[in-house]
Amino acid sequence: MLSEIIDSCGLSRHELARTICEALGWVRANGKLKARECYEYLELLEGKGLVKLPPRREQRPPRLDEHRLHRSWAGAGALEGELSDVAPVELGLVGNAEERALWRELVERYHYLGHKVAFGGHLRYLVWASRPERELCGCVQFSSAARWLQSRDRYIGWDDATRQKNLPRVVNNSRFLILPWFSIKGLASHVLSLAARVVVDDWEEAYGVRPVLLETFVERERYERTCYRAANWVEVGPTSGRGRMDRHKRAAEPVKTCLVLPLERDFRRKLGVTP
Questions:
Q1: 38 and 100 co-located in one domain
Q2: Are residues 88 and 37 in the same domain?
Q3: What is the DSSP string of 114-142?
Q4: Using 50, 70 and 90 to split pLDDT, how confident is the model at 225?
Q5: CATH code of the domain in which 89 resides
Q6: Do both 123 and 16 map to the same domain?
Q7: Which of 113, 98, 135 is nearest to 256 (CA)?
Q8: 91 lies in the same domain as 192
Q9: Closest C-alpha to 177, from 253, 244, 252, 91
Q10: What is residue 61's predicted lDDT score, i.e. its pLDDT?
């Protein structure tokens, strides 16, 4: 059926993804099409030689507003101090092409994992410090949770059937970046706490599901995880060292520590686990 739609419609890749979702009834809880997941799945099939998609349409990236990053471009020194010196700190949901380009640029330059297209649903935020002047100080991304994770699943206490049904209520903090020239005590944990509050409503509005648990993975050898612990995240164990799509245990990745943050006291019940 997929090949028939691809060969007969003459659509772009994005239009194909939407058409396939409509034909197969792939929708989110809020009724919106799962076009992003379908697009990624089609590219996965193309990579395996199973389908041939139409060529990508070249898009000229929007020009970055470089004065908003004056500190890095000008080579200014670190901004040091206490949280009160830059407060209030605000998170702005990325919502247009310029902000998306800016977020990608920052993460690609300054996050050790760089920028990758998130699997499934995702929301991105730009973090702003208000003083001594309004200035961009970080980036945050939330995306769909890992499908299988032994340490997390053991912590929740659910079986496979319950996990498959309720996994959309778990959301992954897949990128977290404080720009390197900000040396502000307590800033990172404060941003994590803010992000955990704002993402609940934003995720529900975007995807029709209200999260009750956050997860993240931090490389053991690279980071101490201090800011997560200060923001009340709980370490639940290591990852397996396999990638998200590695079903055949062939792609080794660094072992990371899994941390979770319950967003509600009865999160296990809302994830389908009976006490």
A1: no
A2: no
A3: ---PPSSSEEEEEEEE-SSS-EEEEEEEE
A4: confident
A5: 3.40.630.30
A6: no
A7: 113
A8: yes
A9: 91
A10: 47
74 & 200 share domain: yes
pLDDT in tens, 107-146: 999 998 888 777 788 999 999 999 988 999 999 999 999 9
Give the E-state strand segments of 130-219 in sequence order: 135-144, 170-178, 182-185, 213-219
Q: 20-34, 87-101, 163-177, 197-211: lowest mean pLDDT where? A: 20-34
Per-residue pLDDT at 67 = 42
Q: Which residue has the tokens 């997560």?
A: 228
Which residues lie below 8 Å from residue 102, measured CB to CB, with a gap of 6+? 64, 65, 68, 69, 126, 136
Domain for residue 147, yes or no?
A: yes
* Nearest in space to 173 (alpha carbons), one of 261, 236, 106: 261
Is residue 60 domain-resident? no
Rounded Cα–Cα distance for residues 141 and 23 (Å): 30
Q: Cα separation of 124 and 97, whole Å?
A: 12
Number of domains present in the structure of the chain: 2
Show Cβ contacts of residue 232 under 8 Å, excluding neighbours closer than 6 positions. Answer: 193, 261
* pTM of this structure: 0.76
How far apart CA 211 and CA 34 sit, in angstroms, is 18
- Residue 136 identity (one-letter amino acid): L
CA 89, 95, 98, 99 torsion-angle sign? positive
Beta strand 135-144 with 122-129: parallel, antiparallel or unpaired? antiparallel
Q: Is residue 129 part of a domain?
A: yes
The average confidence (pLDDT) of the chain is: 84
Going by DSSP bridges, is the β-strand pair 79-82/182-185 parallel, antiparallel, or unpaired? parallel
Range of the domain at 122: 66-270
